[in-house]
Amino acid sequence: MPTEPTPPTVHPPTVHPPTVPVADGAPAPALICRACRTPGWPVADLVLDLGLAPAGDAFPRPEERRPDAAFALSMWCCPGCGLAQLSVDETQTEEARAVEPQALRRQATDAVQRVLAAGVLADVAHTVREFPSPHGGSWLDELGWPQADGPAGVVLDSFGLMHAADQRTAVRARADALAAGGVLLVQFHSLEAIVKAGQWNALRHGHFAYFSLTSLARLLAQVGLEPMRTWEFDLYGLTVLVAARRQGEVEPHPSVAVALAREARAGLTRPEVLRRLQQAADRESESLHAQLSAAAALGERVFGYGAASRAVALLDRAGVDADLLLGVADASSSKQGRTLPRSVSGPGGRIPIISPEALVAERPDRVLLLLPDLLPEVTAAYPSLADRLTVSLGPVPAPGASPSFARSNALQQRLHEMVPSGAHTYARAPDQYPEGMAPVLTHGAGARVWDVDGNAYVEYGMGLRAVTLGHGFRPVVEAVARAASLGTNFSRPTQLEAVAAEDLLELLPGADMVKFAKNGSDTTTAALKLARAATGRTLVAFADQPFFSVDDWFIGSTPMNAGIPAHQAALTDRFVYNDLDSLTDLFDRHDHQVAAVILEAATAGAEPGPGYLEAVRALCDRHGTVLVFDEMITGFRWAAGGAQQVYGVVPDLSCWGKAMGNGFPVSALAGRRDLMELGGLRTDRERTFLLSTTHGPETTGLAAFRAVARAYRTGDPVGQMEASGRWLAAAVAEVVAEAGLGAYVDTSGRPSCLVYRTRDCAGQPSQVFRTIFMAGLLNHGVLGQSFLVSAAHTAADLEQTVVAVRAALVDYGRAVEDGPESVLRGRPVAPALRALAAPRREPRV
């Protein structure tokens, strides 16, 4: 292996395969497969479009003009052979010399040793030809065989084939270089890893093909070759090495069939699967910009490490400039003193490339590791950076290490001194989490959040189910910013109140009027006030469901009822959800006294039984009782129009909040005109004081709601949540079954509202075992009291969750075998609504 960096390489001009004839009047195909020559159409076959992007291997000098030249960058999937490939590439740039990472060098040694140990090369001529990658990385020294000018016993290609614009010609050249009985060794970054991990920035100018074993096998078949064995390495998430020979020479190893079957299940040749990369690109770029902006706002000095072409794609698409990332260190002397190219100009300008030594001298607060595989060598070479290295601004833990909660725990103690229960919502309080493991958060982006210790998590049940489109969802944020810039609160109604009301009423055909507020409790209490005013009755019947309001009428019925007059409980009665006899008996006990029946039409744990809601509607009509649906959770999670849209039963009044603002404070009461007008100016009856709040109509909440409604009209967030929830439920069931813990852990509920359930050794629901499971999730980067997904959860988020579940089940299994005390650390979680602070009373400091 040479010790000096490889010389600069100039990419050859793009080879455009010939066009094909089409029928008269038909549009000419814009794409021709680089492998099988099948025509493709961008509208149908494009799977990832990054627009105009700078060339990833052109690093301009600081004095050169800006913005830099940008070129179209997109991927399409051939409908014939399934090859994912670069659409066009018009770049011709000189590539700056790079230093080969130690991780790549170690993997090359490992790969050659594994091939030799498998005996794959035992019967071939001991000569070699290599088709190198433009990035360097020769295997010739590793193999140690003499090079042949003509056909050779072994033909090597490590990341070389993907750089060929004409794939058919390139693979033919490799086949022609094989001697009789020879072996072709082809190594590639697996498309499986690219899709699963959302590695969209693997798409780069000059990288023409993105292989699955399936598409590579079809390409090899064109020249009479077939895979005979595969090996997998964790480089770049998953790197695959394939040994191929002429068809029929040997029986393929089982590893080939296993890999092909796995890819078939994953659907790697289907455009709809590959289009997940577009979603990942959009969300990761937004996420990175939000993370770096938050770090800058906190005064942190953040640098990067690894000026690779992947970094160029990521940082350019995320709109990151030198104001957000102060510099990027790279070991290549030919890159140092240059800058990362940008397709657009910005206030901060291009990001400078510096030496690792200069990075150390800068004493950065954090270093964003742009190539995770560099972690071992960077840590070893520059130990002073070890505790500052981050990936996506979350810390890179040592293998087997658990995250630190030191800063969170200290800040939580400060909160206890100033805020009762240490949180402004009981469900957010530290007693709802394993002791000493309640992260205090700084920011979020998409479905991920970060805490004051720098830990990053995939979050579930985001904002107590209030965020379905993702943290920092740009259309909502931009709508709120525009509204805020024009003023937020006035002495008269705004036009925004009218159009927002129209938007909500369009979603609810059974509602005539709406009144906005700021939280759900206000609307449920207002609904009952209207019901009492309309009927002249006082009793309220509510379902045995977890929560309806912070107001006395409901909290008076819970164990946490201190400070509430006892007579409040006499004004309510509870019935069993999904049990019609229970509600019928309640009506019989309180003949002509029930003003309202309030319930959630469905919950995370229970769907309405056949005919149940219709029967409830009929009972209320028969008794002259107002029917109220609490749509806080079902609204925008079951459907944009809530449970009433899904089940076709229309209540008299419905209460909305949570996801209707994607986390911004806005709620609503909607319902029949004759009821709602009791709080208005078009009634001759005694008026009801109805939701007269200073902040109810302020503009930012209403603007947020309108942007959410638009996102639901133009997209399918519920469909995304349903699909993610189904996948996650199946994946969790699979790993639970593998662990033999199916009797103790499972998931339940609608896919868009998925919860996990934990049981003890006797099969009974257990807070202790819930604590053990939750701690395992936290230790592996998942923050969730449930598995309630959002439309922002990516395939990578879900995959990480399954990894965390598998890890959490190790301690869970030990607890089942040896008792929970063998793994439980601290006190278990406790019910949020309980009479005493014990068993999680906090001591005074």
Largest sheet: 7 strands, mixed
Helix coverage percent: 25-40%
- Average of the residue pLDDT scores: 89
Query: Which class best fits the helix and strand makeup?
Result: alpha/beta
N-to-C span: 62 Å
Morphology: elongated
Oligomer: single chain
| Rg over C-alpha atoms, rounded to the nearest angstrom | 31 Å
* Residues in β-strands, percent: 15-25%
Strand order of the largest sheet: 23-29-28-27-26-24-25
Task: Give the low-pLDDT segments.
Answer: 1-26, 394-400
**Number of DSSP-assigned strands:** 32
Itemize the secondary structure elements and their pairings.
Blueprint: E1 9-10, E2 31-32, E3 39-40, H1 42-45, E4 46-54, E5 70-77, E6 84-86, E7 94-95, H2 102-117, E8 128-130, H3 140-143, E9 152-158, H4 167-176, E10 178-189, H5 191-196, E11 209-210, H6 213-221, E12 225-233, E13 239-246, H7 254-266, H8 271-274, H9 276-297, E14 302-305, H10 309-317, E15 328-329, E16 353-354, H11 356-362, E17 366-369, H12 375-381, E18 389-391, E19 394-395, H13 406-418, E20 441-445, E21 448-451, E22 456-459, H14 462-465, H15 474-485, H16 495-507, E23 513-517, H17 520-535, E24 539-543, H18 552-555, E25 572-575, H19 580-589, E26 594-599, H20 612-623, E27 626-630, H21 642-647, E28 653-656, E29 667-671, H22 673-676, H23 699-714, H24 717-738, E30 745-748, E31 755-758, H25 767-779, E32 782-783, H26 795-818
Parallel strand pairs: 8-9, 9-10, 14-15, 14-17, 15-16, 17-18, 22-32, 24-25, 24-26, 26-27, 27-28
Antiparallel strand pairs: 1-7, 2-3, 4-5, 5-6, 6-11, 10-13, 12-13, 18-19, 20-21, 21-22, 23-29, 28-29, 30-31
Helix pairs in contact: 15-23, 16-23, 19-20, 24-26, 25-26
